[in-house]
Amino acid sequence: MAFDPLTAALDIGGKLIDRLWPDPAQRDAAKLAMLKLQQEGEFKQLDQDFQLALEQAKINGIEAANPSIFVSGGRPAAMWVCVLGLFYTFFAQPLLAWVSTMAKFPAPPVLDTGVLVQLLLGMLGLAGWRSMDKANNVASK
Question: How many independent structural domains does the chain possess?
Answer without folding.
Answer: 2
